[in-house]
Amino acid sequence: MKKRIGYFICHCGINIAGTVDVKRVSEDLASYPGIIHSEDYVYMCSDPGQSRMIEAIKEKKLDKVVIACCSPTLHETTFRNAARTAGINSFQCEIANVREQCSWVHKDKVKATEKAIKISKSVIERARFNESLEPISIPVTRRALVIGGGISGIQSALDLANSGYEVVLVERSPSIGGHMIQLSETFPTLDCSQCIMTPKMVEVSKHPKIKLLTYSEVQDISGYVGNFKVKILKKPTFVDPDKCTLCDECTTVCPVAVPNEFDLGLTRRRAIYIPFPQAIPATYTLDINHCPGLVPIACGKCADVCEPKAIDYDMKPEILEEEVGSIIVSTGFDLYGKDEMAEYGYGTYEDVLDGLQFERLCSASGPTMGKILRPSDHKEPKEVVFIQCVGSRDPEQHCAYCSKICCMYTAKHAMLYKHHVHDGQAYVFYIDIRSGGKGYEEFVQRAVEEDGVVYLRGKVSKIFEENGKIRVWGVDTLSGKDIEIKADMVVLAMAIRPSKGADELAKKLKIAMDKDGFLSEAHPKLRPVESVTSGMFLAGAAQAPKDIPEAVAQASGAAVKAVNILSQEKLYHAPTVAAVNSTLCTGCGMCVDVCPYEAVSLAEGKANVNEVLCEGCGTCMATCLRAAASVKNVTPQQVHNMIIASLEG
Amino acid sequence: MAYFDNIKPKKGNIHIVKDRCKGCGFCVEYCPNNVLELSEEFNIKGYHPPYIKHEEDCIYCQLCETICPEFSIYVTLKEEEEEIEKSKS
Ligand SMILES: Cc1cc2nc3c(=O)[nH]c(=O)nc-3n(C[C@H](O)[C@H](O)[C@H](O)COP(=O)(O)OP(=O)(O)OC[C@H]3O[C@@H](n4cnc5c(N)ncnc54)[C@H](O)[C@@H]3O)c2cc1C
Ligand code: SF4
Ligand code: SF4
Ligand code: SF4
Ligand code: SF4
C-alpha cells in the first residue's frame, strides 16, 4: 500500500524559525516522495498545533507523520499521543530534531535550512518503513526494598507500609536508627532526638507490612523495574532474638572490651552487646571479630550464664532471596575520620572530638550521662573551640563541597555547651554562616545573643597540646588579628562523606554516583529523588549532605515515587527492541557479549532477546555479522535509507 | 559513677603447675592472644613447660585451661583475686 505521510515543522517561536527558513523547508518537503501534507506552524506542541496535526491525519487519511521540532526527549510523547487520538498507531509518528541538532547550534540561515531539510528527509525515510507497535506490558511485584535503616529509610518504609505495600527494610548494623539515634538534641527546636526517633523505630518493628532484616547486606541484584530479584546476606548474630530476655547477664561475664561504635569510641562494649538500650530489634549481638572464637571451649562464658539458652555458637550466615518491584536507597553518610583529617590533632589528642562524639557527650544516655566532661581527665571544660568546615569547602586538599549541616549543628553544640556549663566560653571558627532554612537564622542569632557564643571568622592554622591545654592558633579575618586560644576541648565539624561501601552497593544496583561519591539523582531539579536506573529511588544523606527535615521530606518523596510503580497493574516498556532473525543467526554469541543490558542469551544455538531487558540501543545490531539482529523501527534497511537521504539531501 | 571507660577488659591470672606439664604445646598453639611460650627450662619429667610471655594480653578466655590434657594450666580472674586480696587486708 502506498504510504501517505504528513510533515509538520514547528517555528518554536524564533528558537527554530530564527535560524531555519521554516516556510522554505515545508515547501521543499511538500514535493518529497510520499508526502501528502506539509505545513509549518508557530508552536506545534500547543493545543491548536496538535489539533492541526490531528485534523490533517483525519482529513487526508495520513498513515504516518513526521514532526520537525525539538528533541524527542521533550515532546515525542505529546505527538505520539496526538497521533493515537487521530486514529493511527503512535509508533507511526517520528520526531526530526531541528532545534538542538540544528537551529541552536548554527548561525548561517541558508546552511541551517539545508540541514533541517536533510534531517527531515532522513527521518521521513525512517518513518516510511516503521511498523505499528504496541508497548510491551510487564507484571509488577507489589513490594518494595529499602536499603539503610536511618531516619530516611525508616520514613520511606513507614510511608510505603502505611500505603498498603509490603516492605523489606535492610540495615547492615545490628539496629536501625542510623545517626539520628546518636544525636542529643536537634536544631532548630532542640527537641530530644531519641524521643522523636524511637516511636518511629518501634512502629517499624511492629508494622505487619514491614520485614526488618538487620545485620544484613544486599549481596546481589538482578531484574528490572517492577521485577527485581535481590539476594540478601543475613550475618549471624549468634543470639536468638526470640529467646533473648535482655537480662544482660552475658555482658557481665564477657571478658572482652572493645571501643563502642555507638559512642564513637568514647566508651567500650563487650564482644556480646546491645548497641543501645532502645535498639530495634531488641536483642544482643555477638561480635565475631572480637570474641576469641566460636570454638565454645574458648571462653563460652556467655552461653554458660544465658538462662534462656539464647546464644547459639553454631548460627550460620543465611542468604535470603526477595522479589520486589522498586528499591529505595537510603544508606546515609559517615563523617571524615582520622585517616582523612589528622591535621587538627583528631585521633592524637584525647580532647579533640568530632561532632558526633560531642553529641554523645551532650546526650543524657551518653558516656557521661549528659555532663560535658573532657575524656582525658573527666574535668569540665571551661573554654571550648568549635571549628566549622573541617575538610569541607577545601578543593585543594579535601572535599570541594559544603557539608551543609555543620553551621547549624555547631551553633547547636555551642548553645548546648553553654546550657550545661554556664560559666564556660564557646568560640566558633567559621568561613561563613549558612543558615538557610525555616527558623535557622534565628537559631544562630540566639546562640550569639542569648548564649554569648563568640564567632570568629577565619581558619585555624594549628592545634597543639601544651600543659594540659589545647592551643588553637587562628586568625580573625574581620579584625585582621592573630588569635590564640588555650582551650580545654576542641570540636571539629568534620566533612560529611557518603557512607562506607556506598560505592560497591551503587555498582551492584547499577546506579550512578557523582564525583564525590554521593548517589546521583536523575535530574537535579525535576527528578531529585529518582536515580538514573528506573525503579530505584534515593532518600536522605546518601544523595547529598542533608539535615533531618530534608532527609524526611525526600524519603516521603521517594516512597511516593515507588508507589507510582507499585500501584500499577502492569508497567509498559518501549517496543522498539531488538529481534533476531533465527534463519540468519548462526549462534556465534557476539551479541550476547556486547549487550550492555544482558538482554541477549543463546538458546538452542540461536540468540534470543529478552524484550523487557532490551533498551533498543542497537549494539547487537551493529555487531552482528549476519545482519540477523535488528531493532524494530531502526532496522538496518531504515538506517541505510536514512544515511542516503541525509547525504543526497 | 564511672564515666567513659566504665567497661574494662578482664584479665586472667595464669597459673602453671610446671611439673604436671608434658610439653605438648597445645596451650601455646591455641591461645588466641599468644600469651604463652614454651620455656627452655626442664620440669621434673624432663619436659619444657610453658611460661607467661605477655601477661597483659591474657583475656581470661580459659582456652588453655580447657585444652590442657594434663590439668597443668588454669586461669583465674584478676579482678576477683584483687578483691579477695583487698578483703583480706
Ligand atoms: C554531629 C551531627 C549533628 C547533627 N545534628 C542535627 C540536628 O540537630 N538536626 C538535624 O536536622 N540534623 C542533624 N544532623 C543530620 C542528621 O544526622 C542527618 O540528616 C540524618 O542522620 C540523615 O539520615 P539518613 O537516614 O539519610 O542517614 P544515616 O543516619 O546515616 O542512616 C543511614 C543508615 O543506613 C545504613 N547503611 C549504610 N550503608 C548500608 C548498606 N550498604 N546496607 C545496609 N544499610 C546501610 C547505616 O548503618 C545507617 O543505619 C546532624 C549530623 C551530625 C553529623
Ligand atoms: S564467648 Fe565471646 S562473647 Fe561470649 S563471653 Fe566469651 S568472649 Fe564474650
Ligand atoms: S544472657 Fe542471653 S538472654 Fe541475657 S541478654 Fe545475653 S543473650 Fe540475652
Ligand atoms: S586464658 Fe586465654 S588468653 Fe589467657 S593464656 Fe589462656 S588461652 Fe591465652
Ligand atoms: S597444654 Fe598443658 S601439657 Fe601441654 S604444654 Fe600447655 S601446660 Fe603443658
Keywords:
heterodimer; A: 649 residues; alpha/beta; Rossmann fold; FAD/NAD(P)-binding domain; 5-stranded parallel beta sheet; 16 helices; 27% helix; globular; B: 89 residues; alpha+beta; Alpha-Beta Plaits; 3 helices; 18% strand; binds flavin-adenine dinucleotide; binds iron/sulfur cluster
Q: Explain this structure to me?
A:
The complex is a heterodimer of chains A (649) and B (89). In chain A, the strands form 12 sheets. Chain A has a 5-stranded parallel sheet with strand order 10-7-6-18-29. Chain A has a 5-stranded parallel sheet with strand order 20-27-21-22-23. A 4-stranded parallel sheet of chain A has the order 2-1-3-4, with helices on both faces. Chain A has 649 residues and is an alpha/beta fold. In chain A, a hairpin with an 8-residue loop joins strand 13 (258-259) and strand 14 (268-269). Chain A has 5 domains: 5-133, Rossmann fold (3-Layer(aba) Sandwich); 143-235 and 318-332 and 499-566, FAD/NAD(P)-binding domain (3-Layer(bba) Sandwich), CATH 3.50.50; 249-305, no CATH class; 335-497, FAD/NAD(P)-binding domain (3-Layer(bba) Sandwich), CATH 3.50.50.60; 577-631, Alpha-Beta Plaits (2-Layer Sandwich). Chain A has 16 helices and 34 strands. Chain B has 89 residues and is of the alpha+beta class. Chain B has one domain: 2-Layer Sandwich (Alpha-Beta Plaits). In chain B, 24% of the residues lie in helices and 18% in strands. Chain B contains 3 helices and 4 strands. Chain B has helices at residues 26-30, 63-67, 78-88, and strands spanning 12-16, 36-38, 50-52, 73-77. In chain B, the strands form 2 sheets. Chain B has a two-stranded antiparallel sheet with strand order 1-4. Chain B is elongated and about 50 Å long. Chains A and B meet through strand 14 of A and helix 2 of B. One iron/sulfur cluster binds at residues 253-256, 270-272, 286, 291-292, 299-302 of chain A. One iron/sulfur cluster binds at residues 12, 14, 31, 33, 35-36, 58-64, 75 of chain B.
